[in-house]
Amino acid sequence: MRFWGLVAWALLGFLGLVIQTVYFFKDPLATYHPSLKPLLLEACQLVGCQIRPLQKTDAVVIDYGAVDAIHSDEPPEKLANSAQPMQWALQINLRNADAVPVATPWVELTLTDAQDAPVMRKVLNPVDWGAPAVLSPGEITEQQLLLSLKKEEAAFTAYRLLTFYP
After folding, report:
1. Predicted pLDDT of residue 108
2. Widest Cα–Cα separation across the chain
3. What's the rounded mean pLDDT across residues 116-133?
4. Cβ–Cβ contacts within 10 Å for residue 49, how many?
5. Which of 22, 48, 136, 155 is the least buried, fewest Cβ under 10 Å from its Cβ?
């Protein structure tokens, strides 16, 4: 009886390990094995989880990025004395370089001074400005965002762009 009891415990332990593995790796399983997605969706309904797009940091690359001043029709003397913040345009192109669909990552914009010290950091969700939540393989999304900077923050000389998943 002891032998069969140990076998039963071993089978229960193995089944628990399989269930945990499927639960923690459900998103990659659904992405790389689409035939399993209906089964995973049913299992998630029972457990109360969701299948989300794959978050693969190295899959999405920044093809193009620029931060440009938006020039006004006002004369420079009037702009210097104006209480209105300077307007800047952030343009960014994100491309899914992977063979599977992935979630659109967030973007961190860091404005830096001449010594490469951060002057300002801003975290942006491209989905909030109209980007798709999921990028298909090879898809490119072009986004533009207007930024208003206070005068002391407008003294940046360079910028860095970084994609990440929160």
Report:
1. 92
2. 93
3. 88
4. 14
5. 48
